[in-house]
Amino acid sequence: MTSILKCILIHGDNAMDYHISKSRYCSAVQCPKILWLKKNMPEEFDSSVVNQAVLDAGSAVGDLAMGLFGDFVEVPFGNLSDMVAKTKQLMDLQTPVIAEASFSTDGLFCSVDILKVLNDTEVELYEVKSSTSVHDIYYHDAAFQYYVLSKLGYKVRSCNIVHINNQYERNGELDIHELFTIKEVTADVIALQHEVEANIRMLREYMKQIEEPEDDIGEHCFSPYPCGFFAYCSRHLPTPNIFQVAGARTTTKLKCYRKGIVSFEDLNTCDLLSGAQYKQIEHELFHYPPYIDKERIGEFMQTITYPLYFLDFESFQPAIPLYDHSHPYEQIVFQYSLHYIESEGGELKHKEFLAYPGEDPRRKLAEQLCADIPLDVCTTAYNMGFEKGRIRGIAELFPDLREHLMNIHDNIVDLMIPFQKKWYYCRAMQGSYSIKYVLPALFPDDPALDYHNLEGIHNGGEASDAFAKMAAMTEGEIEKTREHLLKYCGLDTFAMVKVWEKLKEAI
User: Fold this and answer.
1) Where are the alpha helices (DSSP H) in 342-474?
2) Neighbour-count burial for 346-364, b at 16+ CB within 10 Å, e otherwise
3) C-beta separation of 283 from 291 below 8 A
4) Contact in structure between 328 and 344 (CB atoms under 8 Å)
5) Which of 62, 78, 323, 453 is the most buried (most CB within 10 A)?
6) CA 162, CA 132: separation in Å to the nearest integer?
7) How far apart are CA 312 and CA 45, in angstroms?
8) How far apart are CA 215 and CA 257, in angstroms?
């Protein structure tokens, strides 16, 4: 499996019989209380931490990696006993490569992503991950599998982590041997065996507890994965508190917490935060009116000239590159919205582009963008680093369009700056300068600017996920999804127009 969280979900933590799977084991390495709460208080889990797009990418990567060693037989997912029995049957037949080979002993269970069977007793383990590097938790994942198979009498000749090679560039047919990198971690896994045994003993005792364990908040709440029980475990803290300070590092938040500096009243008299963060705290404590630096906003607004364009991109990041001259996880722009005003007092107009699924969108998008935005005009973006990065990418890809694209790039102004610099700030922004916070703070009662009122797609993550799934949709579903995407992206740039108007009013 390519995600610890995915494994937790798959192996049925609702039932909690209580076998220890590799997913449960890895969760316990992060924090054993995750499993205790999942067993005893599952209703407290915040499912927003589960990124379905990441899970889907992990499944696709795992399925593709099964073919790394030629022909294979996959153990079908189902009842754990059936999976173990099917694996035993395949092992007895000396099947050279088994995907999802499943083993159980003494209340321990694991499925091996790819198992190479060398002979009756010797095997090689390959754990597939959709990441582009090897993270510490992966060693624990492989170590648990090594432990289970060793207890069953198998000699594990090697343990390996299979992950994405982000340097791979697709040209023609997908080359999975270039797409994946294999790192042997046998020595590291063997070194962890005593720790695995100790952790299993600890976990078995831990899960017997009737009363809720009193584990404190710490780094494990955020790493290696954000914990869906954090809100529950931090319920004793005042609201607002240190963990709700926007822009502060997790290490700083934990340092304050351990010093007992938790409430905004406490934080207002300490010196561990930045000026921008104190602005959030003061506005929350004292209910200050909006802070507006008219002079600096005025200077900024002089950089925005007519004709004026408002640009927003939507992109997706396929783990497996779909198009020639693309890399794993490359941001592929598939859509833009463009509102524009040609002169002061002029009519607000709109243009847009949305690719159809199944085709490389980059050339058509680049051509239309050049047609829609003239040379030497002012274009605004909100958090322009994203738009500028994508424009540089397509300019490099299409040299014949480079001059025009880079002219657009060089004339982009970031509408986010007055909010990022806190030249314009109010309490409702909650310390953030994201447009998803800025917009409702500036226009609290305007339903036309409320993303919650949109149908189907409400944020960039949902937009990316929707486009990625369109290739498998029916024609009717595609048209409905296109409608949702166009409305969502259109609102992004219309929101920018309204923000710009609000800045004009401020000066």
Assistant:
1) 362-372, 384-397, 402-410, 417-420, 435-442, 460-469
2) eeeeebbbbbebeebbbee
3) yes
4) no
5) 62
6) 9
7) 34
8) 14
Closest CA to 382 of 438, 334, 447, 341: 438
Q: From residue 308, give the alpha-carbon distance in Å to each of 312, 317, 321, 493.
A: 14, 30, 35, 12
Angle, in degrees to the nearest 10, between helices 402-410 and 384-397: 170
Residue type, 184: E
Q: Which two tokens stand for residue 245?
A: 């300070």
Whether 139 and 188 have beta carbons less than 8 Å apart is answered as yes
Q: One digit per residue, pLDDT tens: the chain, 507 residues?
A: 333 333 333 333 433 456 899 999 999 999 999 999 999 999 999 999 988 888 889 999 999 999 999 999 999 999 999 999 999 999 999 999 999 999 999 999 999 999 999 999 999 999 999 999 999 999 999 999 999 999 999 999 999 999 999 999 999 999 999 999 999 999 999 999 999 999 999 999 999 999 999 999 999 999 999 999 999 999 999 999 999 999 999 999 999 999 999 999 999 988 889 889 999 999 999 999 999 999 999 999 999 999 999 999 999 999 999 999 999 999 999 999 999 999 999 999 999 999 999 899 999 999 999 999 999 999 999 999 999 999 999 999 999 999 999 999 999 999 999 999 999 999 999 999 999 899 999 999 999 999 999 999 999 999 999 999 999 999 999 999 999 999 999 999 999 999 999 999 999
Q: Is 154 left (phi over 0), alpha (psi -120 to 50) or beta?
A: beta
DSSP code string of 149-214? HHHTT-EEEEEEEEEE-TT----SS--HHHHEEEEE-HHHHHHTHHHHHHHHHHHHHHTT-SSPP-
**Which residues have CB under 8 Å from 415's CB, separation 6+?**
310, 380, 381, 382, 384, 496, 499, 500, 503
User: Measured between alpha carbons, how far is 177 from 69 in angstroms, rounded to an integer?
Assistant: 9
Q: Which helix (H) or strand (E) holds 230?
A: helix 230-233
DSSP state of 359: S
Beta strand ranges found along 273-411 (DSSP E): 291-292, 308-316, 332-341, 349-354, 378-381
Determine the Cα–Cα distance for residues 80 and 10; give it in Å rounded to an integer: 11
14: tokens are 């609702």
Query: How far is residue 486's CA from residue 65's CA, in Å, rounded to a whole number?
Result: 35
Show the CA angle centred on residue 229, arms to residues 30 and 455, nearest 5°: 120
